[in-house]
Amino acid sequence: MQVARTDRQLVVQILSKLPWFSLVIILGQICFFMLAAFADDRSTLFSLQTGDSSGALGGAFDLRAPMQNLALNAISSFFVHADATHLYTNLVFALLVLIPLELRFGKLMTGLALLSGHLSGLLGAAFAFYFLSQPPLVAGMSGGLLAAAVPVLATRGKTFALMFLGLLCIGWIVFSWHSFASHALPIAAGWLLNNTKLNGKN
User: Fold this and answer.
1) Strand duo 61-62 + 137-138: pairing
2) 3-class secondary structure for 35-93?
3) What pLDDT, in 10s, does the model give residues 124-182?
4) Number of CB atoms found within 10 A of residue 59's CB
5) 188, 99 Cβ separation under 8 angstroms
6) 181-to-82, 121, 132, 197 alpha-carbon distances in Å
7) Cα–Cα distance between 116 and 104 in angstroms, integer?
8) 137 - beta bridge partners?
């Protein structure tokens, strides 16, 4: 009985240390994409309407009418992806960034990084839409992941983080200049968050 109880406690201890928040986010992204891919009604909240004449992306944040269903679209746009490649790229990025971030800094830091990065990404996308001719539909969690990447990279030194993120920004300016603001602002949000005192276990 004592051995069985000890084994049970060991299992509970191992499970409690898993990065559950990050795993739920990653699995949620997959589930919503599958829901969109297999939905019969292509106008549902998380559906991908890539086959219609307008090319609209259901659930994305539409910068042409930002105040329409503001809160709902801000949330749904985090889970919507343009296509499978977009999803796979973000999933790989999430595995490389979110899990190390949660294991080192805790769930609160991870959640705040995703939230601040996504919201600042929407603000950057709005600026790019009005001034840099960015497409009006915003979808994906890359903004949140970029903010989350800053504390992870900073563990190797702030100089390394600055150089790496600086190269990313240069790449966006050269190859996709209209998306620069929507990616640079989440990096700035992550940098500010990294300089707070929320760098312990939560």
Assistant:
1) antiparallel
2) HHHHCCCCCCCCCCCCCCCCCCCCCCEECCCCCCCHHHHHHHHHHCCCCHHHHHHHHHH
3) 888 888 887 777 888 889 899 999 999 998 888 877 777 777 777 777 666 666 777 78
4) 25
5) no
6) 19, 8, 9, 27
7) 19
8) 62
Listed in sequence order, the residues at least 6 apart from 171 whose beta carbon sits closer than 8 Å to its beta carbon are none
Compute φ and ψ for 56, nearest 5 degrees. Answer: -70, 150
Q: What's the CA gap between 96 and 108, in Å, rounded?
A: 18
Q: Per-residue pLDDT tens for 105-128?
A: 999 999 999 999 999 999 988 888
CA geometry: angle 49, 50, 55, nearest 5 deg: 90
